[in-house]
Amino acid sequence: MSKILKVKARQVFDSRGNPTIEAEVHVKNKSAKAICPSGASTGTYEAYEKRDTNNKRYLGKSVFSAINLINSKISRALRNKNVHNQERIDEILINLDGTKQKTKLGANSILAVSMAAKKLSAKVKRIPLYKSFYITKNFQLPYPLMNIINGGAHANNGLRIQEFMIRPDKAKSFSEAMRICFLVIKNLSKLIKAKGLATSVGDEGGFAPMINNNNQALDLIVLSIKKSGFRNGKDVSICLDVAANELFKKGKYSIHSKKFVSVDKTISEYKKMIKKYKIKSIEDPFSENDWTSWSKFMRSTKKMQIVGDDLYVTNLERLKKGFLNVSSNSILIKLNQIGTVTETLDVIRFAQTIGFNTIISHRSGDSENTFIADLAVGTNSNQIKTGSLARSERVAKYNQLIRIEEELGKKGRMNKIH
Fold it and tell me: What is 193-257 written as a DSSP string?
């Protein structure tokens, strides 16, 4: 048994330049580190992120109180515990906090420690991290849901929809998937420049041109797919993250224009967009409490991937409610929404049991930590959402998946999207 000797934390910075937590777990002669990510577009039901709101030196964003809790209370609680018993480690962390949304210790404190322990266990066993989850053989690579145009809370342009993504559906390998995305992005860059627009990028690496019309963004993407020699809707599919929480007021939505309209009108506009642009996936088409609209949309669309993010916040109780409500057929998985590795795995297992696609996701405030790349392979999740082919905190995850594919060799085939 490898006993935990101590847990140490420090304040580091995420990709948006905000403070976050790095935790380091130690056993004899070995240690492992993990950095907690942070979201911008967050759901109400997400686990709590603990920050020093009264510390004006860091504009209320520092995490020193959380770090102190790790270095004292959490470190004491985990001392002499078996680093390989992830469920027990996470149980101790959950009980130590004792609240539903982890408001006492903060989910950012708990998750940084939980991930570091998982990484250390794999390191001690001398196995790759992806082999330490519940899949033991027949590993599969996920399809990238690659962000190529940013809007909403991730950019300062006028686009209503938060993320415009592409998915290389006909790729036979992960490396080939990356080549396809690379070509589309480079052609999109040329098209944006030709229109006299800037090719600066948003929080997640996608272009953030100063346009304010969803259709204008979609037209650019369709043309870039064509110029790359691919067929839209067949070789490459367009996928959207609406983040409708940000576009909801008094039962109405302003997704397709600045004007708030009824749910029925919103669904009608979605259907026109899906048909015209051959869209294959829509994430968070309605707000997190509007269960009726989710179900109405889900029942009225066919062969569409409807993804719950803010709706589920990687929470098993909410996922079960959504399943019974026929709200979606897919779930976005974000570790920091729930706060521990074990709880995350429980949600993934249940989602896969009920036939949902599981999409492992980054956050807008991310880091060089590549944990989610291994998590995607180690759970045979069929998609990963980790930003564009820009900004090293995004590209780091793609590079890790390329390494894993190389290591798996011929055994490492692409997953299936259903």
Answer: HHTT----B-TTSSB--S---HHHHHHHHHHHHHHTT--BTTTBEEEEE--GGGGEETTEE-SSS
Question: Do residues 89 and 57 lie in contact, with contact meaning Cβ atoms separated by under 8 Å?
Answer: no
pLDDT tens figures, 163-174: 999 999 999 999
| Together in a domain, 112 and 208 | no
pLDDT over 90 at 136, yes or no: no
Give this prediction's pTM: 0.96
Sign of CA pseudo-dihedral 310, 316, 318, 324: positive
Identify the domain boundary among 81, 96, 127.
127
Q: Active-site residue numbers?
A: 204, 334
Domain encompassing residue 49: 6-127
Q: Which residues contact 16 (CB under 8 A, 6 or more apart)?
A: 38, 40, 203, 364, 365
Query: Tokens for 267?
Result: 């669904």
In this structure, what token pair is assigned to residue 352?
A: 């896969």
Tokens encoding 105: 């210790």
Q: For the domain that residue 177 is a member of, what is the CATH number?
A: 3.20.20.120
E strands of 5-73, at which residues?
6-13, 19-27, 30-35
Taking only Cα atoms into account, the Rg of the chain, rounded to an integer number of angstroms, comes to: 21
> Could you tell me if 100 and 144 lie in one domain?
no
